[in-house]
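Request: When convenient, would you put together a sequence paired with its structure tokens?
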Amino acid sequence: MKNEDGVKVAAAFLIGGAIGAAIALLYAPQSGRETRKDIKRTARRVRNEAADLVEETINRVDDFVDETKEMVSEIIGRGVELSGAAKKEIVKTLEQGQKSLEKQKNRVMEAIGI
């Protein structure tokens, strides 16, 4: 899915940024206590940004799924002649998509420690 690739790229970007910031802090001319505070602050900020990004992506996908369901309902409501099997297949596909999104959401949230 394109959305999964986007989340992976964004997560990699955020993780790379956090690592780069941590390395920069380690080489900065300041005390160890100040460096540790900076590292903690940066890690917290990156974690929060990643969580926001994940939530925003999930919301966009959820909106897309909802819009798709509405469109399918409209088509069915207009009397488009679909067989009972085709209607069931559409509903089944949408439900599988939602389940998959929930699984991905939980995996990402666990991965970033939320």
